[in-house]
Amino acid sequence: MAVDDTSTRTDATAQRVLGSPALRREGRAKVTGTARYAAEHTPPHCAYGWPVAAAVPRGSVTGIDDGEALALPGALAVLTHDNAPRLGEPDDPTLHLLQSPRVPHRGWYVALAVGETLETAREMARALRVSYAEEPHDSLVSADHPELYHPEQANGGYPGDRETGDFDAEYAAAPHRFDLTYTLSPLHNHPMEPHAATAVWEGGHLIAYDSSQGATLVGQTLAALFGLDPKQVTVVAEHVGGGFGSKGTPRAQVVLAAMGARHTGRAVKVVLPRRELCSVVGHRAPTIQRLRIGAREDGTLAALGHEAITHTSTVTEFVEQSAVPSRVMYGADGIRTGHQVVALDVPTPSWMRAPGDASGMLALECAMDEVATELGIDPVELRLRNIPDREPDSGKPFSSHHLADCLREGARRFGWERRDPRPATRRDGDLLLGMGVAASTYPVLVAPSTASVQALGDGSDPSYHVRVNATDIGTGARTVLAQIAAEELGVPLDAVRIDVGSSDLPTAPLAGGSSGTASWGWAVHKACRELRESGGSIVTVDTTSDVQSQDEYARHAFGAVFAEVAVDAVTGEVRTRRLLGVFAAGRILNARTARSQFIGGMTMGLGMALTEHSSLDPALGGFVEKDLAGYHVPAHADVPDIDAHWIEEHDPHLNPVGGKGIGEIGIVGTPAAIANAVHHATGRRYRELPLTPDRVGVLLVE
């Protein structure tokens, strides 16, 4: 359905507000240190908790000797499965902590030491003596693993397997057939702010300050775990230092803090050690992706097959939806997409920076580059020839689709016409130079939300107070939501006060899936419009019925990323010289924060391509890289020239503000663009990321 936006304000003041590069409202508080994060809330008589991680990859705890730990000065308690508060069964089994002696993977928490100081709690944890009955374990996925199975669903509720047309027949008949496999190692979120929580019980009411992407969900989860009415729980997540998916669901720190606080009768603070994050806050699971493409002489696709193999844990199933993007991007007469997964003795995978799309589009866009090279067709032109009229999987019309504009505008800005199509032809001394391109996509996700707005002041000097439990994880959500309110109310931006980040505010969905602004903004817009039209003093709205009525169109953001790289022919080191992204993401609501989001996403994609990886030790069953010294993320020097632009896109089928999510679309195409540029520079095709010097250098000398 088309959204009715006839009531949107169009006066000059409003038009100067939404879309303008307004400064972040919380910027000064952050740079001056007055913004308080979860670990910086310290109630009176606050104690400290330090978790104890299992040292075996599978088995059971047979005993815990806490005598030495409890003898330390300032020791308060040691919680184990024998004495910890009993919890209700959670929807997420990874939160059922200290309830049984079972150890499903290395790093699973088996105890919590609580002391008067952080140092005491840490020493208590070290002094604990834990014994185990260890069992055989399996932690490595492979394409021929005997326990692989086809899941009914992948992450996001997508069907595990889908087919349109007759893939086998179309592939067999195609004059050009490609059968390609791409491998991606596990990847981890490493936000600068660690996962932290401070909890205190006040007369049966639980208050938790948590580092989370969604205080509403955390509050609901804690209520279920501790047998409380949701009104008996307040979760505050006013400032969050990034999460990238790892803080999208409640994590161990808030449950452990609440358990410690209930057991001791004190406020308890828990900050998860960075070396343990790889085991307890999720990761992007490794993938083995097979692409089978049947192409005609002109490069149009007759068949597209995308099969993704990955792992999950024995605790709960999470399947990265890597094959799903191939149901969206390109038209073909026969399309088959599917997933296989095996449950291993590993930590549970979870959301990480454009889950599914980042990993799936890496394989698809590298495969498209291989098709273009083999057929002698320009990679931009090949993509233009295969843009579908409708979403291939559902058959629905697109609400808007400007990938072609992104490709053409990006090519123009990047100077693509100067690219010599022949690989390995440009050189600067020992440096091999190349250019690559990849398309990107990300679904438009919107969830129901509530919000309230109250009119303050008098008619001559009006001001407004907006309340919504949005979470600002560094994206500038406060600022953009205030801009939406100011535009609809027809007032200057400084006339709007906004409160976010507490479960006591009107219920709102989490900040994830690039859905936050679209979801919260719809509710804020609706509340402000109803207040303006009614002339009342306060309005609270719910967008559930509005969101649920949208099902006629396929809604996606699109983009194109162009990369230029230099590859050292001696060392194999890859340096990115230029990155350009051009995106079509609906109405851009704040030019300053949008550009920051696009560039941030592209930088994450660069890390995925060149530096980031985790590896599982098959003998120990745990991840090897445990900190930022071993898990390398890009620094400023790694991206000397990066830029982002966007297409002016009007989409009447989205929401009243017309915006699509922009937090993750910048990530999606970047790894493939860099990988394709490396092939163009070297003439060698690399099908495993990251492109570290050891991998690149080996092929260069062959």
SSE order and pairing:
Blueprint lengths: L11 H6 L9 H6 L14 E7 L5 E7 L1 H4 L4 E5 L22 E2 L5 E7 L2 H10 L1 E6 L18 E2 L3 E2 L2 E3 L2 H7 L2 E9 L11 E7 L2 E6 L4 H12 L6 E4 L15 H13 L3 E4 L2 H7 L6 E9 L5 E13 L20 E11 L12 H19 L3 H7 L17 H12 L11 E3 L2 E13 L6 E9 L2 E7 L9 H13 L6 E4 L16 H19 L3 E5 L1 H5 L7 E13 L5 E11 L6 H20 L31 E5 L18 H4 L1 H13 L5 E2 L3 H9 L1
Parallel strand pairs: 1-14, 10-27, 12-13, 16-17, 21-22, 25-26
Antiparallel strand pairs: 1-5, 2-4, 2-6, 3-5, 7-8, 9-17, 10-15, 11-12, 11-14, 15-16, 18-19, 19-24, 20-21, 20-23, 24-25
Question: What would you say this structure looks like, in words?
Answer:
With about 700 residues, this protein is of the alpha+beta class. The chain is about 25% helix and about 25% strand. It contains 18 helices and 27 strands. The protein has a seven-stranded mixed β-sheet, with helices on both faces. Strands 9-17-16-15-10-27 form a six-stranded mixed β-sheet, sandwiched between helices. Helix 9 packs parallel to helix 17, helix 12 (about 475-490) runs parallel beside helix 13 (about 515-535) and helix 15 crosses helix 17 (about 670-680). The radius of gyration is 26 Å and the shape is globular. Residues about 1-15 have low confidence and may be disordered.
